[in-house]
Amino acid sequence: MLSVADACAAILDALPPRPATAAPLAEALGLCLTEPARATVDSPPFDKAMMDGYAVRSADCGGPPVTLTVIEEVPAGAVPTRTVGPGQCVKIMTGAPLPDGADAVIPVELSRRDGDRVTLSPPAPPQPGAAVMARGAAVEVGAELVAAGVPLTPAAIGLLAEHGYDPVPVVPRLRVAVLSTGDEVVPASQTPGPGQIRDANGPLLAAALAAAGATPVPLGLVGDDRAALTAKVREGLAADVLLLSGGVSMGDYDLVPGVLADCGVRQVFHKVNVKPGKPLWFGVHDGDGRPTAVFGLPGNPVSSLTGFELFVRPALRRLAGRSSRTPRRLRARLTEAVANRGDRPLYRPVRLTPTPEGLAAEPVRWAGSGDLHGAAGANGAALIPGASHLAAGETVKAFRWAGCE
Amino acid sequence: MLSVADACAAILDALPPRPATAAPLAEALGLCLTEPARATVDSPPFDKAMMDGYAVRSADCGGPPVTLTVIEEVPAGAVPTRTVGPGQCVKIMTGAPLPDGADAVIPVELSRRDGDRVTLSPPAPPQPGAAVMARGAAVEVGAELVAAGVPLTPAAIGLLAEHGYDPVPVVPRLRVAVLSTGDEVVPASQTPGPGQIRDANGPLLAAALAAAGATPVPLGLVGDDRAALTAKVREGLAADVLLLSGGVSMGDYDLVPGVLADCGVRQVFHKVNVKPGKPLWFGVHDGDGRPTAVFGLPGNPVSSLTGFELFVRPALRRLAGRSSRTPRRLRARLTEAVANRGDRPLYRPVRLTPTPEGLAAEPVRWAGSGDLHGAAGANGAALIPGASHLAAGETVKAFRWAGCE
Q: What residue stretches are annotated with the MoaB/Mog domain (chains A, B) (predicted)?
């Protein structure tokens, strides 16, 4: 049976990044540039006043207080027209260009105005450059602003706006179809009959996708009916990724692998040596050179969540053009002993909390892969190797789940 | 001048949580319940098979292999109709209810079927409860499922679905209007003239709001024109929060405080003892008992970002009904020495990276509040007290910015 690492490698090998598009900057949060953005202007584009006040020659202000002649007033957005000579100054607003001749700004709070004369009383003589941001101090034209392959943050979005990047060349937000299967499953809004349960996986996976920066496309529920399942799968293959839950274990009623094959989805693997989530199925549909990744996730909700975190998230990163394949590895210290009596590696729900000594991992009360209540009290998982017993204080690999703080 | 802590307290005192609404579960990621949700059913609602296989009496299987008579087949979604007696078993699918009499499931992989007889060869005799999840093992009816005042995670969304909560009682997603002011500012799509710059704050703040789970309502740009500014402010007061950037320092052209007063916005404070971001303005508009929080953020982009993180985010948490007032405090170790020559506390952009010994804070190259390029290389800020010089290795308070990993 495939290891988690080999399964991840097989997924990444099967999936090329999706092609670039031009997206409005306002919709680009979390998307990745497909080429680096470079500065189109010096920033700031001119020596810029950083406070409201008076632009002075610092050499004039060696012994404050000093009284100078105000030769001009320059609001932000306007341009100074005169050169500041000895004994002169210009009234200036935050953000305005510094006039020629001046090399410092003294804040308006430290001034007393009298007609065209002003007395300035800084506590100490201003240094050249005081309250001035020099042209190009932040970045010079041509320098790299934002790297490709890294999700755009709010500051990066602001920076791209400052340099005129709108629209931006990015991999568009991934659309991911979500389909729950099984005759035993009814929608959340319905009261289950005998032997039935409500669908937790559909809402869970849609929320996890949104938290991971993708757009979920809910396809609802389908029972164990070959024709209905086939129709829904074909609908889902229009998305970038199709997630199914349920119907991938060994049972006689597990139609999913057969229907996927009939729809032209090429199986890459079925089953991974992991707990929970062993029956995971992965394949690719090559629709006219536009591949759709297809995951068959197990029906137990914590198995589905684990499969999403371990396998779907790396696939989303790859498809979205992220340069790093996997999230940053975390290490955490167990607050309690944990045993894994089985032979498969266990990704056990834990509550991760930062402490001054690093991350702590507290094992939540958890009754296994059907226990979503336990998992909802966690914010991630700790890897407990097969057939092992870890003591409190031992260090484990840890993973923070999407949408959890 | 107000301290950061006093300013935060004043903001939180002025803002009650917004009232509850009933929202579709599919739109509730990150929102807070206004009352705790309790289990409506035992979970699982019946003793549930956790694998495809044969439901047996464990007492029959003391010396495997054992051959039993298959008296019924129960797919998931169906209900067993017969009681398993000695020497009998029932074929069962993952998720199906366990028949009366049976107390364990043996996986189908370990079976060999011959007509109505099956030979089961588990490696060891099954324990009672093997591959069975007992009714109520995850949660019993009436127990608290999800607390109020905590942002809903994907697992919590799935859990609420399992218990039929759709719609859910939550504080609805906050709508936050964003308005950039100043004659010197032009849109990202336009080429700045002399003395002009493109608007970075509008796109930055809209992205930060989306990253923090609110819905940005972009109002665009307005110049230093009283009538136009008044019209835009009135439009913004329809939102839960209005963010303005620029126009709040001491300059003659800073119209914002006056226009806000004219529009009935009551000033709570103006100016905070912090760097960057000192000129921050905060007030409240009491529109028919539906208060709108109004922030005047400074025009320099890193000042605006700092004001958003320190003051707007706590306000959003309060309005959204979060029970904890502030994000979890982080502590990080500086990788390099940092000086703060000024007397105000400095929130300096840093790159926070988890290490086995806790968080490391690397001070990025940064030229001050106008340097968004430096800030875009950071993912948070470290607090450097006024007039202090911290050596490499010293511990600082740290804050991770919204939308940054």
A: 177-318
Residue of B nearest to A51 (CA): B249
What average pLDDT score do residues A168-196 get?
94
Residues A205 and A237 in one domain: yes
Which of A162, A303, A351 is the best substitution to test chain B (most B C-beta atoms within 10 A)? A162
Q: Which domain, by its residues, includes A211?
A: 4-18+174-319
Identify whether residues A202 and A309 lie together within a single domain. yes
* In A17-92, beta strands by DSSP E: 21-23, 37-38, 48-49, 53-56, 66-74, 88-92
Identify whether B373 is part of a domain: yes
Same domain as A280, residue A368: no
Give the span between the Cα atoms of A292 and A146, in whole angstroms. 29
Number of domains in chain B: 4
By C-alpha distance, the chain A residue nearest B184 is A77
pLDDT for A252: 60
pLDDT of B53: 94
Partner residue facing B373 (CB), from A159, A355, A372: A159
Is the N-terminal amide bond of A276 cis, ω within 30° of 0? yes
DSSP B312: I
Q: Which of A121-135, A336-350, B77-91, B240-254 has the lowest mean pLDDT?
A: B240-254
Which of B322, B344, B373, B397 would you mutate first to test chain A, the one with the most A CBs within 10 A? B373
Q: Do A188 and B161 touch (CB under 8 A)?
A: yes
Q: Are B64 and B125 in contact (CB under 8 A)?
A: yes
**Cβ of A357 and B358 within 8 Å?**
yes
Residues B75 and B93 in one domain: yes
Burial class (CB in 10 A: 0-12, 13-18, 19+), B391: exposed
Residue indicated by tokens 């086995």: B356
Q: What pLDDT is stored for residue A195 in this prediction?
A: 85
Which amino acid is it at B221?
L
Strands A53-56 and A104-107, by their bridges, are antiparallel
- Among B149, B170, B191, identify where a domain stops: B170
Ramachandran assignment for B403, one of left (phi > 0), alpha (psi -120 to 50 degrees), beta (any other) = left
> A145 is written with which tokens?
């602003």
What is the CATH number for B373? 2.40.340.10
What are the backbone angles phi and psi of residue A104, rounded to the nearest 5°? -155, 160
Radius of gyration of chain A (CA): 30
Chain A residue at shortest CA distance from B141: A373
E strand or H helix at A227: helix A226-236
DSSP code of B45? S
* Sequence-separated (6 or more) residues with CB below 8 Å from residue A256: A181, A229, A244, A246, A247, A248, A281, A296
Helix segments in B191-327, DSSP class H: 201-211, 226-236, 256-262, 301-307, 313-319
In a domain, B128, yes or no: yes
CATH number of residue B115's parent domain: 2.170.190.11
All residues of chain B having their beta carbon less than 8 Å from the beta carbon of residue A157 are 203-204, 206-207
Residues B123 and B199 in one domain: no
Task: Report if residue B259 sits inside a domain.
Answer: yes
Please classify residue A175 by burial: count the beta carbons closer than 10 Å to its beta carbon, then call 0-12 exposed, 13-18 middle and 19+ buried. Answer: middle
**Predicted local confidence at residue A329, as pLDDT:** 79
Q: Which residue has the higher pLDDT, A135 or B249?
A: A135
Q: Residue B294 carries which side chain, given as an amino acid letter?
A: V
User: B187 and B249 in one domain?
Assistant: yes
Task: Judge if B338 and B356 occupy the same domain.
Answer: yes
Query: Given pLDDT bands bounded at 50, 70 and 90, which one contains residue A267?
Result: very high
Does B54 reside within a domain?
yes
Angle between helices A201-211 and B154-162 (to 10 degrees): 160
Query: Is this complex scored with an ipTM above 0.90?
Result: yes
Beta bridge partners of residue A112, listed in sequence order: A119
Is B211 a residue whose pLDDT tops 90?
A: yes
